[in-house]
Amino acid sequence: MTQSLHIAVIAAHPRRRSFTLAMATAFADACRADGAVVEVRDLYRLGFDPRMRAREMPDHPGYAPRADVVRERQAIGDANVFALFYPLWFNAPPAMLKGYVDRVFGMGFGYSPIQRGGNQPLLVGRKLVSFTSSGAPQDWVERSGAWAAMHKQFDEHLSLMTGLEIADRHNFGAIGPGLAPIRFKECCAEVDRHARRLTAGHRPAS
């Protein structure tokens, strides 16, 4: 019997009617159509606070995650796949998403401390997929070195700390005001293809 795939879609954009949220919705819909269980976390609409307080630092006496972090960990804790959707601002994730990763994927969820100052990854066997968008064309993002640098500093380090497997990563370049409807449809179709590849092998028997 095929086990259902659980996917946490984590989206970060201040505008509800944004390209980022549209792609996140298209991805979630495609995954659900293939039988996946999908939990969408729209960080701005949730009012998530990305600021980490001093008492949330792991070395703080009496350290414990705050209530909002506990809720988020419960909401996404069953996920086999974490799908991140966000725009590139200064060729980096928005502070909202970075703060979410810092607070939610930190100690006790993404990793646990071990002796001699090391960490034990806690999300081994689960996957990370990322969909981003940029105003600059994708060829410029790659030629400038920004794409490789962000992959190294964000995706790979998150994978190293938590054990997540980087399963997919895609950027939609040249996205801005006045996006042609045909281009928007092409992007939706691209997201759908990525979703179908991800859910292949987990589809319930007809």
Structure, explained:
With 206 residues, this protein is an alpha/beta fold. It has a single domain (6-199), classed as Rossmann fold (3-Layer(aba) Sandwich), CATH 3.40.50. Helix content is 39%, strand content 19%. It is built from seven helices and seven strands. It has helices spanning 19-33, 43-46, 67-76, 95-104, 138-143, 146-162, 181-199, and strands at residues 6-11, 37-42, 81-87, 111-113, 119-121, 127-133, 165-172. A five-stranded parallel β-sheet has the order 2-1-3-6-7, with helices on both faces. Strand 1, helix 1 and strand 2 form a beta-alpha-beta unit. Helix 1 packs parallel to helix 7 (181-199). The longest helix is centred in the C-terminal third of the chain and has 19 residues, at 181-199. The protein is globular and about 55 Å long. The relative contact order is 0.19. The mean pLDDT is 94.
The CATH superfamily turns out to be: Flavodoxin domain
Q: Count the strands?
A: 7
Count of individual helical segments: 7
Q: Structural class, please? A: alpha/beta
Termini gap: 12 Å
What is the residue-mean pLDDT, rounded to a whole number?
94
Percentage of residues in DSSP E strands: 15-25%
Order of the strands making up the biggest sheet: 2-1-3-6-7
Largest sheet: 5 strands, parallel
| The CATH topology | Rossmann fold
**The number of domains:** 1
